[in-house]
Specification:
- The chain has helices at about 15-25, 40-50, 65-75, 90-100, 115-160, 170-185, 200-205, 210-225, 250-265, 300-315, and strands spanning about 5-10, 30-35, 55, 85, 105-110, 190-195, 235-240, 240-245, 285-290, 320-325.
- With about 325 residues, the protein is α/β, with parallel strands linked by helices.
- The protein is rod-shaped and about 105 Å long.
- It has 2 domains: about 5-135, 3-Layer(aba) Sandwich (Rossmann fold); about 170-325, Reverse transcriptase/Diguanylate cyclase domain (Alpha-Beta Plaits).
- Helix 7 packs across helix 8 (about 210-225).
- The chain has 10 helices and 10 strands.
- Strands 2-1-3-4-5 form a 5-stranded parallel sheet, with helices on both faces. Strands 7-8-6-9-10 form a 5-stranded mixed sheet, with helices on both faces.
């Protein structure tokens, strides 16, 4: 039993040819023959039927067989269906032109039954396997796209702090290294803000850790909302500490940003009854700016910003202190 079933569309204006082929193919259970006598209907019928092989005459009164052949190959829905020419002429020139127009095979009327069956089955097998490869390739491409999306999502998740939904320490470290190199290459200023929620341990002690988590989320959202440039990066540095990377920003600009962030967090009006800084949750900020040169190290900028933050906290909290290199 043949592995594949053939759906054959015969396009020929002669009923006698149809009857002869129908009789010839009748014993073959794996081959189903369909007949189209009107050449102008052949394309529409082929699209509707989706045959595995088109068996077509070249000499028809309504339309030139080569033109019809060319129309199959231009139709996306059936462009890959093999076309087997069944012609009354054995002319070498006609055969060559048929193949040039996209014919897959050529038989002279009337072929021997064994040869016709062999060719129909061969072309059906090749067509079905081709279609299976196309489907497999499409599925593979879809899986590749899904994997690419999943990989990007994993990369995103790996760079995001799970609680606050802002960049995490890893993302900051990578971005900081890139921005440091870029600032050195382009001789631009690079500013850094280190931020700490004032008296956060006391907040947790007073309101509980769930409330503390909610406080972290609200503060992070406020900080993110009020950074105005897409190049500015906010990250959770650890615990209740945040960091803001400000590429291309001089010291005065960094202080301006820091003051805006401090005021916006205070404007949240989150009660903090055990804070020595304010009745509401507040933040302290340390700002540092540098135009990187070869003599500088990126770690120095971090240390300066951290030192400025310590001074802001030691000096009463809820304020901005600026350092420089």
């Amino acid at each position: 039993m043949p592995e594949f079933h053939s759906t054959v569309l015969l396009v020929d204006d002669q009923n006698s040819i149809h009857l002869a082929l129908k009789k010839m193919l009748a014993p073959a259970d794996d081959i189903q023959l369909h007949f189209c006598k009107q050449a102008r209907q052949a394309l529409d019928m082929a699209v509707a039927l989706q045959p595995t092989v088109i068996l077509q005459d070249l000499n028809m009164p309504e339309i030139d067989g080569l033109d019809l052949l060319h129309s199959y190959k231009r139709c996306e829905a059936i462009a890959d269906v093999p076309v087997l020419i069944l012609s009354g002429t054995d002319s070498v020139e006609t055969k060559a032109e048929a193949f040039r127009q996209g014919a897959d095979d050529y038989l002279v009327k009337m072929p021997h039954e064994i040869e016709l069956l062999a060719r129909l089955r061969h072309h059906t097998k090749a067509f079905v396997e081709h279609q299976e490869r196309v489907i497999a390739m499409r599925q593979l491409e879809q899986e590749k796209k899904k994997l690419a999306v999943a990989y990007l999502e994993l990369e995103r998740l790996a760079s995001i702090d799970g609680l606050t939904n802002i960049a995490n320490r890893r993302h900051f470290d990578e971005s900081f290294a890139k921005e440091w190199s870029r600032a050195m290459r382009e001789t631009e200023s690079l500013s850094l803000l280190m931020i700490d929620i004032d008296c956060f341990k006391q907040y947790n002690d007073s309101y509980g850790h769930l409330a503390g988590d909610e406080c972290l989320k609200l503060v992070a959202a406020s900080l993110k909302q009020h950074l105005q440039r897409p190049t500015d990066l906010l990250a959770r540095y650890g615990g209740e500490e945040f960091v803001v990377l400000l590429p291309g920003t001089h010291a005065r600009g960094a202080i301006k940003v820091a003051e805006r962030l401090r005021k916006e967090v205070l404007a949240l009006q989150l009660p903090h009854e055990n804070s020595v800084a304010h009745d509401y949750v507040s933040i302290s900020l340390g700002s540092a700016t540098v135009a990187p040169m070869l003599k500088h190290q990126a770690l120095e900028l971090l240390q300066l910003a951290d030192k400025a933050l310590y001074e802001a906290k030691d000096g009463g909290r809820n304020q901005v202190i600026c350092a420089g290199m």
